């Protein structure tokens, strides 16, 4: 039986097959149906059920028993002797793995499977019985024989595997070398000292453009040197001799000068070999084409030079410190100009930087760097420095950031310090200007407000003081609550109708919170326009800026003035009436009394006009019609009046009214209104001249045939021909045609009065 | 001083500035009646300045204060420098006359010959 197994153990190349067969054999031989091989694991901490018979699935190949605990497996491996437990229920020495108990094992025996020479044991061979059993010496002897056969088979198979691995490894190494050579990166060489010849593989030959076969046999060094850049040749000779003499490893970069001027860089590494007596034997080494990384190095250097060029010429101070901010690696020249201190002083002692700061600001110096080291991506700090060179105060804005490697580790802390003195001063001035403006807005004796489409957005504190509203209450249309109820609708309409061209001027009463009195105010506002649009139109209205002014006193004064004016007019007209009355009584029999009376009446009418009209002006047509009404009753068919709408200033109304009075008086007594065929036309127009504008009035009568007219002499004629030119600078012409009177009056008028309204 | 002797102003050249035609005519007649020689009348400040400028020998002036909206003060300054006696003919009360001119003699319209003699005669 053992002989059959021994044959299998020598023949089979499957360890699992051998182990399983061994379990089957021992189980059969000892009359039990449970057997297993436990393999010691490489870490030595536990054993694996490597093979077995009679076990349920999940045990073989999976179940492990720890050697750390007090198990019979550990005991067997440690002692190297068979370990037997005839009745595990009565066993006090060991604990047993759960799967043994679950399979109903009552008695068990272990023998060691030894390892190869100098190796730890392979593991254990175990047989279990479901009944209590006292295993005999024969049993254990048999088991040990089996275990030895297993050990031999395992050793044999282990050797085969090692051999196979070695073969695979060898093949793999060769493949790698071939790949490396094919990609043209590595060439191998050997410098044979005795022959003074340099040998190399085909790639090494290819680097130098030499015949591969000649290189394989070996060529003098000079053949290779001819291929190098002339500047590198001497160096190679010297270093090689030196390296050989001292039997050291040597590393050298040389340039290959290729046809067409191309340069390629080779990194040559070699190791000197010596004979047993210390004499130099050879140098064996590799040559690698490192042109690509050389180009990258060059680019990096150029990039650094560009940075330096930028940094050296920048008007800002650029600084780079180590990762912990302890000292500066770089500081640009602008530092000296900006801080008035030499660069070297700060480069050698970073604390010197802090000493430059204004005493109140020292804490902010280098704090940006500290914040970056604390984890911020970038940090900005402002501080003032007092320059040692001239004592000038400068404002500095210092921005720091971290320079990190690809893995995010901080390599440096760097930053830019800018002189922002001009900006800081401008800001200070702006702040001062804003403060002054705010002081003005908040103290002028009127309310200042801002408004948008939805009413007020802001109002100055005076409004709150006056009305008792909070800022929130006054927003949007809330301020209307302080407006007199009777005025609210009008105010709202006026605000909503405000347009950018017309602005707003609206009077209303506002309640004063302190005494509950409503006082008259006037609101005005102007639009704040956005940028003009390309079509030349003005920009959109962004918002409205407005003021509300107390005009209550003004209103009262205006009212008083109205009363006074009305009183004055009343008295003037009353006085004229009294004068007329006195004259009538005094001169009842005198010629001319009636003319005097009607002239005073005309003056009275003018006074009446002027008192009724606002702005001290009278419409010319109204003036003419008033005189017409005063002189003519009924039949107006013979009269035609025509001219533009025109208001006459008060200064010319009275003289003109008196002139019209004279003309009408004459027409009623002797002219157009006397004769059945008589006609009167009064036309007026504005004549625009180069120097000034004139009102030209044309009076023309027809169908009048009368020889003698009073107008030919006396007051009326003097008025028209002398008084009007004298006091109005008027040009007048009074003619008496056979058909009737023709009179033209051209009166200068100020430009603003000449616009027909 | 009260002087009612009409001969005091005889031959004296008196500037008349008055924008109201008929009042100016009355003043002119008044001066002629008392033997004085009226210069003017003119209705505007500019005309009055021109006339005064080209009339070297002036003995006095009767000036309306408001000339079609313009105040007569520049002319007053000019005449004062020349030492010419001035009478303001105005309906304005003291309140409206600026302080530099408050001491000028005034006579209310309608102007009377007695007032003129009192202020212009010497």
From TrEMBL, chain B:
Residues found modified as 4-aspartylphosphate: 64
Keyword entries, A-Z: Phosphoprotein
The Response regulatory domain, residue ranges: 13-122
Domain of life the protein comes from: Bacteria
Statement: the UniProt record of this protein carries the keyword Phosphoprotein: yes
Gene3D superfamilies per UniProt: 3.40.50.2300
One GO biological process term: phosphorelay signal transduction system
Name of the protein in its database record: Response regulator
